[in-house]
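User: Some background: our group keeps a shared notebook of sequences we're curious about, and every so often someone picks one and asks for a predicted structure to add to the entry. Today it's my turn. The entry only has the sequence so far, pasted here. Could you supply the structure so I can complete it?
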Amino acid sequence: MKQEHVSKSRFKAMALEYMRRVETSGESVVITDRGQPTVEIRRYRSDRRSPLETLKGSVVDFNAPTDPVAEDDWEAVS
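Assistant: Of course. Here's the predicted structure to add to the notebook entry:
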């Protein structure tokens, strides 16, 4: 799906136009702040699945889930 990038100042000035465009075309708009993507505006999609159905198949790696975990096994992300 195509995404248009727009600065937050331009979006602020033309917000209603961008929202109507997203609503009619289905294409999302990414709002940037100093050139970095910060917010995505996209058409609302209702997801009536249960939380478990939504997460089904989302685990990528599941090695030895019953092995004990020691303090040194955790990695901090900074």
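Suggested note for the entry: Helices lie at 8-13, 15-25, 51-55. Residues 15-25 form the longest helix (11 residues).
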